[in-house]
Amino acid sequence: MHVQIVLFDGFDLLDALAPYEVFCAAAMYSGDAVSAELVTAEGARAVTSGTGGLSIQAAGKLDPDKGGIILVPGASGNVEGDGPDSVPAILARAAESELTGLIRQAIGRPDVVVATVCGGSLLLAMGGLLENRHAVTHHLGMDALQATGAIPVAARVVDDDSLVTGGGVTSGLDVALYLVERELGSRVAIAVEKLFEYERRGTVWRSVGLASSSPVSPPAEAAEQAAETHLSDPVPEACTAPSDASDFAGVWDTLISTPIGKMSVRLHITSINGRITGTATQGDDVADMENPYVENGRLIWTQRVTKPMRLNLRFEVTVQGRVMSGFAKAGMLPASKLSGAKLTE
């Protein structure tokens, strides 16, 4: 069994190196039945981690056609703010690289297991690779994971068959030990645990069993954060709006400032008898505004976007004459400022 651990600029050291050491130890106790290497989407190179700028040499290029395990770590950076060194920005840059395409090639192969640690699942989700898949990430990112279309599960390790994901930073040990047990057997896993003087934490959630289809709520922290950002606000009946809904009608050119660049979006909004409908156009992509309504002078709606990453966003905007302002937000990701001007009525 061969394990490819993928590095990218800004990766978290512990996310990657803890599993690497587990697999290397497993090789000693299994007669070299497992091997591990550090790779990147670009090929052999020095990769700067997000932890103190420490650089690690990757040995080669990720091969999506090679059977075995591909493990993707998370990022190390600022957990607050939207600067270029923030965790969401680092993950988004990695998701926009060749890495997403390579993982997409691998994830459907019957002889490949894709594993992630911490924010690694968010990285894949940003590329649209985890839609309708059970997964976990760091507790601060659970609502963002849900916003990408994944199914968040509150467990230390989540086994969704060919996808195995781990929660926080130290879960890399648990993910790797679980994969050693699953693929090589409990004898080898126990031997590595004894060597490390470490025992796996938590119960592995698996997508099998009599209750496998039961919904699992995100951790309390994520649920509270979702409530704070109104992601579960009820939508008024029939999405009707008060009389000032007509203030939002028209064609608007807007600019959304995200952590990884600016997005130009044209909004086409109509208001008929107080009922709002609309579309958003970004390049060749056109998406309907979902459940739009006006509340306290704000137009609020949700929308699924594919650029710069796949996300379910919540928009809140206000208008003053021909000027629009507001924000778009998804889960733990920083709110992105929106500004715009009306082109036509």
Describe, in plain words, how this protein is organized in 3D:
This protein has 345 residues and is α/β, with parallel strands linked by helices. The protein has 2 domains: 227 residues, 3-Layer(aba) Sandwich (Rossmann fold); 108 residues, Quinohemoprotein amine dehydrogenase alpha subunit, domain 2 (Lipocalin). It is built from 8 helices and 21 strands. The strands form 4 sheets. Strands 16-15-14-13-21-20-19-18-17 form a 9-stranded antiparallel beta sheet. Helix 5 links the parallel strand 8 and strand 9. Helix 1 runs parallel beside helix 6, helix 1 packs across helix 7 and helix 2 packs across helix 4. The longest helix is centred in the first third of the chain and has 17 residues. The chain is elongated and about 75 Å long. It starts with a strand and ends with a strand.
Helix residue percentage: 10-25%
pLDDT under 50 segments (min length 5)?
217-243
Class by alpha and beta content: alpha/beta
Question: Strands across the major sheet, in which order?
Answer: 16-15-14-13-21-20-19-18-17
- What's the β-strand tally? 21
Radius of gyration: 22 Å
> CATH class of the largest domain, anyone?
Alpha Beta
Average per-residue pLDDT, rounded, comes to: 86
Shape: elongated
Report the portion of residues in β strands. 25-35%
Region (Disordered): 213-235
GO biological process, one term: regulation of DNA-templated transcription
Organism: Paenibacillus ginsengarvi
Biased composition (Low complexity): 213-228
